[in-house]
UniProtKB/TrEMBL annotation:
UniProt-recorded name of the protein: Glutathione S-transferase N-terminal domain-containing protein
Family: Belongs to the GST superfamily.
Taxonomic lineage from the root: Bacteria, Pseudomonadati, Pseudomonadota, Gammaproteobacteria, Lysobacterales
One Pfam family it belongs to: GST_N
Domain spans labelled GST N-terminal: 18-105
GST C-terminal domain boundaries: 108-234
Amino acid sequence: MSQLSRFPIATRWPPRHPDRIQLYSLNTPNGVKASIMLEETGLAYEPHLVDIMKDESHTPEFLSLNPNGKIPAIIDPDGPGGEPLALFESGAILLYLADKTGQFIPADAARRWETIQWVFFQMASIGPMFGQLGYFNKFAGKDIADKRPLERYVNESRRLLGVLDGRLDGRDWIMGDDYSIADIATLGWVNNLITFYEARDIVQYDSFGNVVAWLERGLARPAVQRGLMIPRRG
């Protein structure tokens, strides 16, 4: 098992290819950030399904890699200095893989930080707000008699779509002509909002023409199409 044998998670999800990046994930909006990035970069990796519906992300083995119990997480057997590197948090994984490959993040310092700020915008705003909207629109929250929480998250999600729509005005991608980790971070969440969360109408999604066109461009990318399905429950 090479150097991966030092990681307890490798006992529950044994690697068949220990020389490849090990991805522990599920194709949720956060999980697909890692799989899309890995597909886009062409890095060799091995995906392991962590079924959050079976609480597998809270097993001792997974918690040894991510004490926060959330997917995705990775182990790169060829990390800095040739040593294995374990990482959790999807934003950190995107940044690490971008730096490792020199892809999907600008080399210019100012443009690099501009890209990172839009990754943080997704992490801090789009993800949490869209996720809460999904809970109150589709899952247990929909049965709560008080509809003010749903209204709050509908309004905030609509506002965030407006922010994104404004940024995309005159741009193909969040950073202009260059597809980047800012797009990779955000595509899965916007797609999930209008599909799995069934919120297309209540957020008036089709009124955000720049976002609609951007998502269509993103979903047309073969690596995005593959990444959205990796790994998924059978």
